[in-house]
Each structure stands twice: as C-alpha cells, then as structure tokens.
Specification:
- With 380 residues, this protein is of the alpha/beta class.
- The chain starts with a strand and ends with a helix.
- It is 41% helix and 12% strand.
- The protein has two domains: 135 residues, Aspartate Aminotransferase, domain 1 (Alpha-Beta Complex); 238 residues, Type I PLP-dependent aspartate aminotransferase-like (Major domain) (Aspartate Aminotransferase, domain 2).
- Helix 2 packs parallel to helix 8, helix 3 packs parallel to helix 4 and helix 9 runs parallel beside helix 13.
- Strand 6, helix 7 and strand 7 form a beta-alpha-beta unit.
Length: 380
C-alpha cells in the first residue's frame, strides 16, 4: 500500500465524519429550505454544523457563511469586497494561492491597483513592505495564515493591525492552518477568514467564509438568498454536516496532531539534511506537518514520479498547479533560482503516517537521487 504524504492537497475522510454524513445521504435527504419535517431536520443539521465550525475558530455561528470550498470563499471575499468598496488598492502577499491572486489581479480591470507584498528568503512576509503598501489608500488586504507549499506561518495579526489602522478590510486564507495550529478569528484581528473541510479529514465540496458581523460584501452567486443572502443555492447538507464534524474532531485532537506530525517532520528534515537537500523556509515558523525541499540538479516532477513508483505519494508543489511546468511562484517570490525551484518537492504529513514510513521515504530518496544523478552524469 502506498504511503500517502500529500495531506496539504487533501485528506482521507475520517470514519467518524463519514458516519455523521451518512444519514443525510440516505434517509434524511430533505431540502433545508422546505417547511416539512425532512426539511426542518436538514435545517437543524446545518445549524449544528454552523455551531461546530464557529467553535473551532471562536466566532458566533451567524458569522459562518457556507460555500463550496476554499476557492469560492476566497473569491467571495475578494470580489464581494471589491463590488462594495470604491476602487483603490488591494494588497495581497506575493505567495497567495491562485484563488486569491487571480481574482485580485482581475480587479485591475475595474479600476483597482494591485500591490503584491514581498516575502523574504525564508518565505516570511516583509512587514516593512506591508507597512509601506498600506501608506496609500487601500480597500482590502489578503495574507494567508500558512503557505500551502512551504508551510511558513505568516504574521497575519501584525498585518491586520496595520490594515485596520489604514481603514482596510483584512482577510486571511486559513485553509492550511486549520487543524494544524490553533486558529482564532478574534486573535488574528481579521475581518474575514477562509476555511475548507477536505484539508481536515472532512468531505470535498464544503468550505466557509467566516466574517466580521460589520463586514459588507456583495454576493458572487445570486439566487434564492441562502446563507444570509451571501451564497445562494440549495445547501449541500451531507457535506456541511461532514464539515462540522471534521471541525469538532480537529479541535479535539489538535495537540495530538501537531505533536505527531511535528515529530515526523523533524525526522524527515534530519534525513534530508544528511542527503544534502535544501529545505525551503526551514528557519521560519512552519505548520508542523510540512516540509518543502529540493536537491540541486534534480527535477522535482521526475523525483515525484520515481517516488510514486517506489510507493510514496508526494507533491511537486501545490496540487492546484500540478498541470503547470513553471517553477513555483512562491519560491520565485522568495528569491529561489528558477532551476532549483523546478526541483521542489513537498511532503505533508497526516495522522496516519508513521516514523517507519519516514525512514523508508528517506531511504528511497537516497537511492532515487543517486540513480538520477548517475543518469545525468552519463547523459553529459
């Protein structure tokens, strides 16, 4: 059986989450907007899930807007804020996920200016650059809480303080942080936060935009006025129930998951150091489950394929960008040379991974890298 080391891309649904969902895939199939008993029970299930999601980040249930996932939540904030505000500047970190970066860049067509906030060599946001960016009128700011590739945790609270002082709305994509580190909406001081179910052992197709009660957004999807008018469409009750169950599970085992995956990462990092790999963001604060590395003169995609043959599922970058052959924009923003960036491989651990699997991965890496270097030498 293949060892799965790609938990930042997605996670296997937890059996307890699946069991919570099953009734709403079979007997409890009502539309939550219907007035009969089936509909009423579906509405209660959604309300319960809203409470569970709210609890994991410390907000009121009314602040949780259910959507189809992280991409939709990020678009809802970016486009929804822009549609409400007068066009000025939107500031986003240079390492944002494409579902933040692309809608932000698209705002340039509507009179907005787009400012990319710099990061340093370790992938940590340059607070001085953020302060300079916010010295001009700014409508919205978005900085992810943890980078999906490097795992580097960003100074969101500090940026949020600057944004509020400048009169800007502050958003964070917390998809990769939830379930790995403690996440507090109030503690971060943001106006909006994106969450996703399938990164925390929940189902695909469910996410949320958590919002400050004073935040004014215009909906991206119009229709029957579901989710307080911010996201129309018949609710995906089974997925929402699963999202709620996954959030409760994540809260209950946060310390265990962080400790377990952190020990695995330490073991992997030590093995990579012995093999001569470079680890991106190693000296910055990182979520405990993620290591992003490269070997000089070794192509990352080739290494991923060879490791897959050896029984290990890893990634050559973000799953959303797997069809692109371009080097990671995150690594380029960190000042990594394009040739080395093309060699990047990401390992992201989950609750079922073991120390034995890590040792086996390091051993296979040693063998595969040596073989690839030998082939390269012969080709020269």
């Amino acid at each position: 059986m293949q060892a799965y080391f790609d938990h930042n891309a997605t996670t296997r649904i937890d059996q307890r989450v699946l069991e919570a969902m099953l009734p709403y895939l079979t007997d409890e199939y009502g539309n939550a907007s219907s007035r009969h008993d089936l509909g009423t029970r579906a509405r209660r299930a959604i309300n319960r899930a809203r409470e569970q999601v709210a609890a994991v980040v410390g907000v009121q249930p009314a602040q949780v807007v259910f959507v189809s996932g992280g991409t939709e939540a990020n678009n809802l904030f970016t486009r929804g804020a822009a549609a409400y505000l007068k066009p000025t500047q939107v500031a986003v970190s240079a390492i944002e996920h494409p579902c933040v970066m692309k809608p932000a860049l698209d705002l340039a067509r509507s009179g907005w200016s787009v400012r990319k906030l710099r990061v340093g060599a370790e992938g940590f946001l340059d607070l001085g650059d953020a302060g300079e960016a916010l010295s001009v009128p700014t409508g919205a700011v978005s900085v992810m809480l943890a980078n999906n590739e490097t795992g580097v945790i960003q100074p969101v609270r500090e940026v949020a303080e600057m944004a509020r002082a400048a009169g800007a709305w502050m958003h964070t994509d917390a998809v990769q942080a939830l379930g790995k580190i403690a996440v507090s909406f109030e503690g971060l001081g943001v106006h909006a936060m994106t969450l996703s179910a399938h990164k925390i052992y929940g189902p695909k197709g469910a996410g949320a935009l958590v919002i400050d009660k004073r935040l004014q957004l215009k909906p991206v999807i119009h229709g029957g006025g579901h989710e307080g008018g911010l996201r129309s469409g018949t609710e995906n009750v089974p997925a929402i129930v699963g999202f709620g169950a996954a959030c409760e599970l994540a809260a209950n085992r946060l310390d265990h998951v962080a400790r377990h995956t952190g020990l695995l990462r330490e073991r992997l990092d030590a093995g990579l150091a012995r093999l001569g790999a470079g680890i991106f963001g190693r000296d910055a604060p990182r979520i405990p489950n993620t290591t992003y590395f490269a070997f000089e003169n070794i192509d990352g995609e080739t290494l991923v394929i060879e490791l897959n043959k050896a029984g290990f599922a890893v990634a050559s970058g973000a799953a959303c960008s797997s069809t692109s052959t371009d080097p990671s924009t995150t690594l380029l923003a960190m000042g990594v040379e394009p040739e080395l960036a093309r060699g990047a491989v990401r390992v992201s651990f989950g609750v079922t991974n073991t120390p034995e699997q890590v040792e086996q991965l390091v051993s296979s890496l040693s063998t595969v890298v040596a073989r690839l270097r030998q082939l390269a030498a012969v080709a020269v």
